[in-house]
Amino acid sequence: MIEFRNVSKNFGEQNVLDKLNLVVEEGKITAIMGPSGAGKSVTLKLLMGLLKPDEGQIFVHGSDICALADDELASLRKKFGMLFQDAALFDYMNVFENVSFPLYEHTKLSDEEIEKRVEASLNEVGLENVNQKLPNELSGGMRKRVGLARAIILEPPIVLFDEPTTGLDPIITSQIGDLILETHAKRNNTFLMISHDLALSYRVAHKIAMLYKGQIVEFASPKELKYSTHPFVREYLQAQLNLEGSR
Amino acid sequence: MTKFFDQYVEPFVSSFGRIFVSLFNASRVALEEMGRMLRMLWASCKLVVTPPVRWQLIVDQMQFIGVGSLFIVVLTAIFSGMVFALQSGRAFAIFGAETLTGAVVTITLSRELAPVLTALMVTARSGSAMAAQIGTMQVTQQIEALSAMAVNPIDYLIAPRIVAAILVMPMLTSIFDFVGLLGAYIVSTKLLNIDPAMFMEKIRYYVDVADIVQGLFKSIFFAVILSLVSCYQGLQAQKGAYDVGRRVTMAVVISSVAILVADYFLTALLF
Q: For residues A35 and A107, what is the distance between their CA atoms, to the nearest angstrom?
């Protein structure tokens, strides 16, 4: 289980998170949604220990990550897999080297075993015969798939998604949605996703948290969210409906 | 009197005050940056001696910094040796001491020109590339991805570059010494008609092993400066391509100036 307890984060004068409270249930897909600049990416970075909160505590499986020493934090990070917004693949490594990187860093598996694991992981995200390709030879959707293969190769109990469908066309967006559902069904681990994409969140998430002015103003299932009475949530949903209506 | 004060004294004092405040702020920022760089160096030193040592990455970087810079170092060395021999040979000829050309060129090359010019060339070629590569990785979240995968970026990216630079810089400086001397020998014996035997004899007589060791010792300091500054500037890139370009420029400028300043103090304090 992941829990944010009264977490605040400021950048200079800007108060990005303001006593944020959130509980992410184990084995479920949770989406955090909100306007640009609401602090969604900061929330993920705080969870990974890449940023420190100014106030509050963040618990992962019972450990307060803010109180951990650097080596303990490094060891905790092995419990996470993260798919970055632009996949963040190492551009000087080919697909095989990118996906096998965590295995070479954190396991003592033989080269043959690593090859098998990479092959299986790439197959799981629907990729074949791309081992020798460099990231700049791949499409946006393929890069995201490689990023996901790398994120799940160590079989982490928690997988984080930072805007998994940004910049992708509707068909690839739909395929990424399928992929998230399939991967979750196979592994049943905790997925935390931040996204602008309401359709994707409705489709894949068990719970949606709406982040506004540094706080979670609504935390509900997709069905319940549609009936939210919070003014910002109403405005957000209406804007999305207007956008879909104008298409 | 009041008019005189308002017209001449007050603007002068306030301008002086503004300049003083700007200089103070600039010095404070420079000291803070230097402190952060030294912390990064200390973290790198600790990680380098903590197993497992990343030998493969160190060898890769040695190849990039050393083998990659070899051509430009050789080219700089041969022309530096040739032009220095030409200038000093002609000057010595005025009072009939042209046979000293070899010794003077060798001492100057080994003590000063070889370590300094090698460091400046490696900064221009490899330091800029280090800053650009690390800066690009920073703005495309690749460094965050390393941290997210529980890999320390200092251990993976910075420490191997610093160690590789420390290992290859004395080698490149030795090559500069040899090739520079070769250039000086060719110009002295073929163009200035200095007797080859006299050229070599004077080198044997006047040049001490300590002269060469001094240059190699300096090159280790310069290696730390150029690799540390370049990596640090790369890590500071935050705002896209423009910022990466700015950081690369800063890496080259700060490294070059720091090498020249360090050269003076090393010479004055240690030798």
A: 39
